[in-house]
């Protein structure tokens, strides 16, 4: 079966990640009649442009999944909790973008370039990681081929679309207000995001880290199959519309040369090295936006650690950080003939 033969549902099609999934399907020339876009009752009836056609949003209810082969859930944890298993009961292969299933030991958490084999044991649902975790684990997976990773320190610079459409609109509205001498009023975030950075992504935990920072630790360990990998993250929201960036310090068990790091990163599927400081070339959100690859640069020896490297990356959080990763999971499951739950294939 070809992927264009699949009947695909996008749950949360009116949101940032769901909308990007629709755009990616259009780029693949997926037939409009084989796409079912779903959202909440208040969005039902809305028209979504799709090339020369239009897709009509329907209400996301269990019966809407009849005849669907694969469904991408990008509507939040509560919707996934309510509908994902109902879809599986109707024979649907579910790929969930939210956080609700990520740490369930019975559900694989997958970045195809890193751990595609985990798709083999899915129970009908495969989860995708947080948009800041995805590029990090790809870089770590590439570099650990040179030496085992001893510890990671990462600082993220995350765009507003990582929060959603409303947050991005708030950035634009606040920026316009500030530039015209008006008052910028925070609503989505606890502080003004325009011309500011907020060192808080999600709620704080008792240990002083945020849920987002804890996600990066827990999800990375699960994807990399390394339950003891030390990762310390500081996640920051910045006034950028699309694409997350990260400053990453990696300590290895043995020395890793910059030249070898260049080589394995540039050879890694889904990663592109952009690193020519003399020409002012390095990853930036504007360069990463609309691209499928994780851009990596500023690769250098860590002068604070004998066996360390430091690098910078940028990644489109709506494409590889969300919708593209989900569609790649669908592609891999199709290639492996693994749409049905493992228990039904064995």
Count of alpha and pi helical runs: 10
* Main sheet: strand order: 5-2-1-6-7-8
Main beta sheet: strand number and arrangement?
6 strands, parallel
Structural class: alpha/beta
Count of DSSP strands: 14
Percentage of residues in DSSP E strands: 15-25%
CATH topology of the largest domain: Rossmann fold
Per CATH, the superfamily of the largest domain is NAD(P)-binding Rossmann-like Domain
CATH architecture term of the largest domain: 3-Layer(aba) Sandwich
Measure the end-to-end span. 21 Å
The shape, in one word, is globular
Radius of gyration: 20 Å
Q: Could you give the order of the helices and strands?
A: EHEEEEEHEHEHEHHEEHEHEEHH
Helical amount among residues, as a percent range? 25-40%
Please tell me the total number of domains. 2
Can you give a write-up of this model?
The chain is an alpha/beta fold and 346 residues long. Strand 13 and strand 14 form a beta hairpin. The protein contains 10 helices and 14 strands. The two termini are 21 Å apart. Helix 1 crosses helix 9 and helix 4 packs parallel to helix 6. Strands 5-2-1-6-7-8 form a 6-stranded parallel beta sheet, sandwiched between helices. Strands 10-9-11-14-13-12 form a 6-stranded mixed beta sheet. The chain has a two-stranded antiparallel ribbon with strand order 3-4.
Put the structure in a nutshell:
The chain is an alpha/beta fold. Helix content is 30%, strand content 22%.
